[in-house]
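Here is the promised in-class demo. Please do not try to memorize the tokens; focus on the logic of going from shape to residues.
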């Protein structure tokens, strides 16, 4: 009988985390998510604060404070597998606000809402066909820490 040390397969992010196993889910109501097959890349997720200039005429150097956060569009690349693209076509560009969930291998979750469009990637000889889901983020992102008790210590 072959013995396998299952601890070698446990997710321990303390030394870093490989992205293999990251998933993308989409939902109309935010409760039941459908996984979109073929996820290839996930962009930076987060928001940068706008800079608000508060310099007055008595200052000798420019002063700024953080303003509201500015979330960029998120472009998620997927390998074209036929049905994964076909399932999204009717919803692309419809203006509806969908719920999105990116789940990382250790259980970290990023959620956001937004409408989306699709774009087929370039096609080349001996190349995989892919497409991009571009989400215009209207709310979020919000992060939920893994519940496994791993804290990167």
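The designed amino acids, position by position:
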């Amino acid at each position: 009988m072959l013995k396998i040390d299952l601890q070698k397969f446990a997710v321990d992010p303390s030394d870093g985390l490989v992205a293999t196993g990251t998933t993308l889910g989409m939902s109309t109501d935010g409760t039941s998510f459908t996984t979109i097959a073929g996820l290839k890349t996930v962009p930076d997720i987060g928001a940068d604060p706008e800079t608000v200039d508060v310099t007055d005429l008595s200052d000798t150097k420019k002063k700024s404070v953080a303003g509201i956060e500015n979330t960029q569009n998120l472009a998620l690349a997927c390998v074209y597998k036929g049905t994964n693209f076909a399932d999204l076509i009717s919803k692309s560009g419809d203006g509806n606000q969908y719920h999105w969930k990116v789940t990382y291998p250790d259980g970290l979750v990023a959620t956001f809402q937004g409408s989306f469009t699709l774009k087929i990637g370039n096609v080349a000889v001996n190349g995989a066909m892919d497409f991009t889901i571009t989400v215009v983020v209207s709310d979020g992102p919000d992060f939920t820490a893994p519940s496994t008790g791993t804290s990167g210590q």
